[in-house]
């Protein structure tokens, strides 16, 4: 059934109609074709002709600019042919210059493999021999030398590059010829993670310079608010923005769907998601359903199988998520593209550009946290001029509900800025250490890559004997490999293996294992339920058994912040701000047993906590404000929680980071201060300098927070003020009135306040 | 005076100081040793830490030049510190004819000849490869091998034999007898870690008559590494030089290459290379529990080291010196390296005895 009819079907159905709060028809756009300034080599033209491809305006612009050796950042929509836009000039160069090479970086191994298939096809058809190869952690040892010595197009990921750079002498041929570096899904590299990638790219550019090459950068991203600035910060070079999308798309019917529209008739969001998904598949729409968690993906897929069993179509749907083994994922991707699958329920793992063919519609179960993700996910539906639909199913949390009440605010909401800080000393100094281990660091030459603070930082590293100055520059002399000490992200490398009767079912990291695969937990895998029999935290093995239990489990977690040392403190009116070292502990203390959404019991657990040491700032609220909140009968905990959210929302304006990089905790009475306290901490082991910077700027941050909350016309809080898209407590409790009283006192108390 | 980024340096130092590239294993826990690629036993570790403390105490206020008798060496790449010593050592000399005879007797070195063909050919009177120059089918290849032998290119000849035999085959080893004892460069390096860190000490030994002379190029600070590399390179770039190492195929040679590339110092390093570890495994695998250098040294020469630093702990001893300027921790490192390179030469001489009459 075409998308338009599907939406008509839903809005006509008494079952679903009451929950549809808004339908926005996003208008269609006709294609605009362009012509290149000069034709491509014959073999490539023949490939395009054979495939029946005419180039869109943005593709022509990309090709023409790249031929002039200009860096570009392409931000056109999903399925607009971004990949072709850079593959064409890359292959043209490989064809014209037998020594030329190209490097493609993807954020995941799955994407790299997907891309390899597409490029090999181009290679086979055109006869241009690029020796394309994926080089990552999965590349077998015995194939590595041949790839280093022969491949002209290498596909890898940033983590692998970070490890490869110290071995650059083995890559001399490849690096000497390096003409293009493609960074796909570049919007993934923002916040602290992006700042690390920016450091790694500067090291790569420096080494290229040593081998005499000066590659052109090609960035491909989802739509973001600041493409040119983002490209400049990520690569350190100016890039032309290619954003004028020439590809066509049909009308997209965007439905806001609220299972809680009528409190009396409210239904759990996952059940409603499942019913919508079943309805779409039943009507013959190829549908992709995005869920907020791995577990939800399994639950929805399982329910959908049941719903479709009577029609004999249970096998046409599947769940998809990280943790599945690669071959399992590959089978699902292929099944959706050309095989028997009509619908897949996925976590955001399918948000990236893995080729899964054309879809009729997308269901987004719960606001995914950013508008960048909303449009990425919605963009997976609809190829060429075909109509498509997207349905956002709201959760009960205040943020989702706000969007349901204010559809215009949702559709007008801008894409987020992709923030990168190239001057964060914690990050930059780490990459200086790595660089010094790759080639002697020459301050004259290398300030061009690492900025003017290089000398001062190098002095500090030298004073601690980590680098030493030689006639050729600073030489790394620290203990351990620099690249091992500098982690690009905070992801845990500890992998737990989940085993059923000796067969490896899937893998997950420690944090996830403690939350989802603790003893007693029920685990879903491809719709089958497994009970965790035992967990060995040292050997990192979890044994599970199949079960047909009809209940499910939900972990009870507890986060604590313990102050280990206070480094600085200053007075702020009747309260105090402190900066110090803290221990964040996250413990799964037990789990609830639920039947449907009803809790039927709880069990305690004795798992070790997940601990990380980091830097935090904390501040207490003035006593009279606390009294005022209490005397008015407002909720102090809700007020503190709201201030914490709003302050964290404001922080990226002052401290260049993504809000995901910061954590927060508020307590009506924290043991360290004995007062109502708000903590803001760096979400990275060892701290990354964010809280330290915020400590210096806190008065300004609190003034802006005050203005934000005070100036927001909403009544009880909204995503523009106190709702957080990453709140671990479902944005509860929140009390906007109490928050405003607290902020009023805090902002007034700020010594630097202008008010 | 602390600069604006003082905290940064301290933070990285704290983080890096926690890095240890080896595991510490409970004494006698043989099972656990299989799990770590690099380990020391708890007692070794404790002994070494105590040794370090004693040395720091004993050498307080002593200069490096007084602690380690040597001289400053000026190379084209700056200075480093040279420590020289001598020892007695006997080694069989050059014997081109004996090697040639052994190689020529092995017809399987010719493409297309396996064990059975060899026996058949020998029965038909083709006793040596020289005889094969009369054979219609194998003539060309036999002539090429003869030319290879005459060319004096040992590295090429080793590669040729290695194509038809394992790299640890006695015949591969035997090519060393093409060389005069003076050609051998015995090399052992001490480093600040496993790759992409400086080499702090190059131990080079050369034989002259019945003596072995050890030249150790020590860097007194990291910037001297280039000079020590250049001094070592001078040995390796000699016209007839042949390199002898213990596990150098996997470690010392790639490490030296990597450091040369790091500094942009061009070199080819295509000299013949005898890795004694591989030959030792072939000969003594059955006799000893493992083929670590110290195990062979104890078993074959009855040497018990005292006051030694485990190799894995050399980086932290050197760091202790670098940070304090106290030369105490360097003393056992230099002795350890000297002992390693002499034992290496002795093992090489012993292998010549084992295989002098083969195959």
What does this structure look like?
The complex is a heterodimer of chains A (755) and B (359). Chain A is of the alpha/beta class. Helix content of chain A is 38%, strand content 23%. Chain A folds into 5 domains: 3-27 and 248-412, Rossmann fold (3-Layer(aba) Sandwich); 42-242, 3-Layer(aba) Sandwich (Rossmann fold), CATH 3.40.50.300; 425-433 and 442-485, no CATH class; 495-549, no CATH class; 560-588 and 609-749. Chain A is built from 25 helices and 27 strands. In chain A, the strands form 5 sheets. A 7-stranded mixed β-sheet of chain A has the order 1-9-14-13-10-12-11, with helices on both faces. In chain A, helix 17 (425-438) packs across helix 19 and helix 22 (623-631) runs antiparallel to helix 25 (736-749). The radius of gyration of chain A is 27 Å and the shape is globular. The model of chain A has no long low-confidence stretch (mean pLDDT 89). Chain B folds into 2 domains: 67-91 and 180-354, Ribonuclease H-like superfamily/Ribonuclease H (Nucleotidyltransferase, domain 5); 96-178, no CATH class. Helices cover 46% and strands 15% of the residues of chain B. Chain B has 16 helices and 9 strands. The N and C termini of chain B lie far apart (69 Å). Chain A binds chain B through residues 166, 168-169, 210, 425-426, 429-430, 433, 437-440, 453, 456-457, 459-466, 468-472, 475-482, 484-485, 686, and chain B through 3-13, 15-17, 19-21, 77-78, 192-198, 221-223, 225-226, 257-258, 261-264, 315-316, 319, 322-323.
Write the layout of secondary structure elements.
The complex is a heterodimer of chains A (755) and B (359).
Chain A: H1 3-12, E1 20-26, H2 42-51, H3 57-67, E2 72-74, H4 82-96, E3 101-105, H5 109-126, E4 133-134, H6 141-150, E5 153-156, H7 158-164, H8 172-176, E6 178-183, H9 191-210, E7 216-220, H10 227-235, E8 240-242, E9 252-257, H11 269-282, E10 287-290, H12 294-309, E11 317-320, H13 326-337, E12 343-346, E13 361-365, H14 371-378, E14 388-393, H15 398-405, H16 407-412, H17 425-438, H18 443-450, H19 454-463, E15 467-470, E16 473-476, H20 482-485, E17 495-500, E18 503-509, H21 510-516, E19 522-525, E20 528-536, E21 541-546, E22 552-572, E23 575-595, E24 598-604, E25 610-620, H22 623-631, H23 636-654, E26 662-667, E27 677-682, H24 690-711, H25 736-749
Parallel strand pairs in A: 2-7, 2-8, 3-5, 3-6, 4-5, 6-7, 9-14, 10-12, 10-13, 11-12, 13-14, 17-21
Antiparallel strand pairs in A: 1-9, 15-16, 17-18, 19-20, 20-21, 22-23, 23-24, 23-25, 25-27, 26-27
Helix pairs in contact in A: 3-4, 9-17, 11-12, 17-19, 22-25, 23-24, 23-25, 24-25
Chain B: H1 6-17, E1 23-25, H2 30-33, E2 39-41, H3 42-58, H4 64-67, E3 71-75, E4 78-88, H5 96-104, H6 115-123, H7 129-132, H8 139-151, H9 154-164, H10 170-174, E5 184-191, E6 199-208, E7 211-218, H11 225-236, E8 242-245, H12 252-263, E9 273-275, H13 276-284, H14 293-301, H15 314-324, H16 330-354
Parallel strand pairs in B: 1-2, 5-8, 8-9
Antiparallel strand pairs in B: 3-4, 4-7, 5-6, 6-7
């Amino acid at each position: 059934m075409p998308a338009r009819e599907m939406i008509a079907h839903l809005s006509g159905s008494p079952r679903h109609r009451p929950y549809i709060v808004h339908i926005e028809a996003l208008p269609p756009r006709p294609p605009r074709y362009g012509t290149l300034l000069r034709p491509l080599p014959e073999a490539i033209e023949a490939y395009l002709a054979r495939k029946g491809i005419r180039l869109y305006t943005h593709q022509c612009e990309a090709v023409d600019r790249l031929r002039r050796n200009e860096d570009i950042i392409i931000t056109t929509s999903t399925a607009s042919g971004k990949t072709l836009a850079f593959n064409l000039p890359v292959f043209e160069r490989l064809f014209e210059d037998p020594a030329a090479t190209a490097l493609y970086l993807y954020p995941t191994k799955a994407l790299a493999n997907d891309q390899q298939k597409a490029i090999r096809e181009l290679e086979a058809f055109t006869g241009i021999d690029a020796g394309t190869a994926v080089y990552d952690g999965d590349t077998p040892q015995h194939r590595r030398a041949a790839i280093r010595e022969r491949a002209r197009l290498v596909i890898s990921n940033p983590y692998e590059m970070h490890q490869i750079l110290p071995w650059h002498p083995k890559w001399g041929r490849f690096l000497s010829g390096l003409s293009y570096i493609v960074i796909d899904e570049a919007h993934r590299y923002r916040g602290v993670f992006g700042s690390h990638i920016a450091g790694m790219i500067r090291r790569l550019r420096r080494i290229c310079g040593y081998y005499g090459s000066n590659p052109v950068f090609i960035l491909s991203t989802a739509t973001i608010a600041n493409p040119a600035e983002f490209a400049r910060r990520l690569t350190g070079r100016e890039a032309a923005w290619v954003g004028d999308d020439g590809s066509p798309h049909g009308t997209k019917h965007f439905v806001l769907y609220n299972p809680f529209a009528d409190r009396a008739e409210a239904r759990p969001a996952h059940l409603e998601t499942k019913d919508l998904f079943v309805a779409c598949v039943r009507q013959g729409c190829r549908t992709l359903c995005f869920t907020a968690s791995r577990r939800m993906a399994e639950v929805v897929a399982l329910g959908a199988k049941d719903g479709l069993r009577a029609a004999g179509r249970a096998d046409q749907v599947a769940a998809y998520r990280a943790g599945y083994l690669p071959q399992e994922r590959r089978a699902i991707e292929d099944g959706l593209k050309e095989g028997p699958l009509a619908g897949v329920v996925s976590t955001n793992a399918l948000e990236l550009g893995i080729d899964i063919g054309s879809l009729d519609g997308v269901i987004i179960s719960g606001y995914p946290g950013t508008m960048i993700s909303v449009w990425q996910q919605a963009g997976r539906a609809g190829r060429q001029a075909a109509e498509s639909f997207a349905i956002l199913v709201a959760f009960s949390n205040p943020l989702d509900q706000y969007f349901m009440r204010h559809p215009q605010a949702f559709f007008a909401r801008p894409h987020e800025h992709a923030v990168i800080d190239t001057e964060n000393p914690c990050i930059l100094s780490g990459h200086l250490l790595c660089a010094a281990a790759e080639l002697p660091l020459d301050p004259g030459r290398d300030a061009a890559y690492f900025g003017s603070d290089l000398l001062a930082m190098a002095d500090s590293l030298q004073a601690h004997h980590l680098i030493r100055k030689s006639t050729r520059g600073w030489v790394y002399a620290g203990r351990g490999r620099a690249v091992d000490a500098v982690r690009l992200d905070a992801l845990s490398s500890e992998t737990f293996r989940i085993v059923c009767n000796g067969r490896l079912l899937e893998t997950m990291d420690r944090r996830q294992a403690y939350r989802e695969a603790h003893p007693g937990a029920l685990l879903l895998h491809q719709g089958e339920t497994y009970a965790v029999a035992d967990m060995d935290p040292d050997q990192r093995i979890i044994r599970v058994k199949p079960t047909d239990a009809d209940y499910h489990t939900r972990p009870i977690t507890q986060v604590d912040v313990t102050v280990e040392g206070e480094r600085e403190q200053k007075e702020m009116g009747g309260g105090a701000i402190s900066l110090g070292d803290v221990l964040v502990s996250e413990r799964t203390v037990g789990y609830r047993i639920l039947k449907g959404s009803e809790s039927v019991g709880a069990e305690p657990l004795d798992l070790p906590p997940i601990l990380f040491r980091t830097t935090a700032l904390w501040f207490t609220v003035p006593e009279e404000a606390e009294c005022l909140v209490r005397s008015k009968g407002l909720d102090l905990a809700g007020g503190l929680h709201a201030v914490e959210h709003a302050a964290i929302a404001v922080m990226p304006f002052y401290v260049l980071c993504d809000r995901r990089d910061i954590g927060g905790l508020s307590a009506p009475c924290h043991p360290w201060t004995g007062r109502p306290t708000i903590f803001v901490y760096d979400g990275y082991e060892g701290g990354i300098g964010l809280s330290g910077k915020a400590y210096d700027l806190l008065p300004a941050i609190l003034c802006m927070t005050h203005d934000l909350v005070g100036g927001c016309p909403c009544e009880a809080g909204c995503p523009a003020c106190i709702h957080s898209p990453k709140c671990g407590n479902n944005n509860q409790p929140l009390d906007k009135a109490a928050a405003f009283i607290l902020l009023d006192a805090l902002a007034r108390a700020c010594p630097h306040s202008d008010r | 005076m602390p600069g604006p980024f003082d905290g940064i340096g301290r933070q990285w130092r704290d983080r890096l100081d926690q890095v240890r590239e080896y595991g510490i294993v409970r004494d006698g826990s043989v099972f656990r040793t299989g799990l770590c690629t690099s380990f020391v036993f708890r007692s070794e570790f404790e002994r070494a830490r105590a040794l370090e403390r004693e040395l720091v105490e004993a050498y307080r206020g002593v200069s490096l030049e007084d602690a380690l008798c040597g001289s400053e060496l000026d190379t084209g790449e700056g200075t480093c510190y040279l420590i020289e010593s001598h020892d007695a050592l006997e080694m069989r000399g050059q014997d081109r004819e004996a090697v040639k005879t052994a190689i020529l007797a092995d017809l399987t070195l010719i493409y297309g000849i396996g064990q059975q063909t060899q026996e058949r050919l020998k029965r038909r009177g083709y006793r040596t490869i020289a005889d094969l120059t009369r054979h219609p089918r194998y003539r060309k290849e036999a002539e090429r091998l003869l030319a290879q032998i005459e060319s004096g290119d040992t590295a090429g000849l080793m590669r040729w034999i290695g194509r038809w035999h394992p790299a640890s085959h006695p015949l591969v080893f035997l090519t060393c007898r093409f060389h005069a004892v003076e050609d051998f460069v015995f090399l052992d390096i001490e480093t600040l870690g496993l790759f992409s860190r400086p080499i702090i000490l190059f131990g080079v030994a050369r034989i002259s008559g019945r003596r072995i002379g050890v030249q150790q190029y020590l860097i007194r600070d990291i910037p001297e590494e280039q000079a020590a590399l250049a001094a070592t390179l001078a040995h390796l770039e000699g016209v007839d030089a042949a390199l002898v190492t213990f596990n150098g195929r996997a470690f010392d040679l790639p490490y030296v290459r990597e450091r040369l590339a790091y500094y942009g110092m061009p070199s080819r390093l295509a000299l013949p290379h005898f890795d004694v570890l591989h030959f030792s495994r072939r000969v003594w695998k059955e006799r000893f529990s493992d083929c670590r250098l110290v195990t062979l040294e104890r078993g074959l020469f009855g040497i018990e080291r005292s006051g030694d630093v485990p190799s894995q702990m050399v980086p932290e001893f050197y760091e202790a010196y670098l940070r304090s300027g106290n030369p105490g921790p360097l003393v056992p490192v230099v002795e350890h390296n000297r002992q390693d390179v002499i034992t290496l030469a002795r093992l090489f001489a012993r292998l010549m005895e084992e295989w002098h009459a083969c195959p």
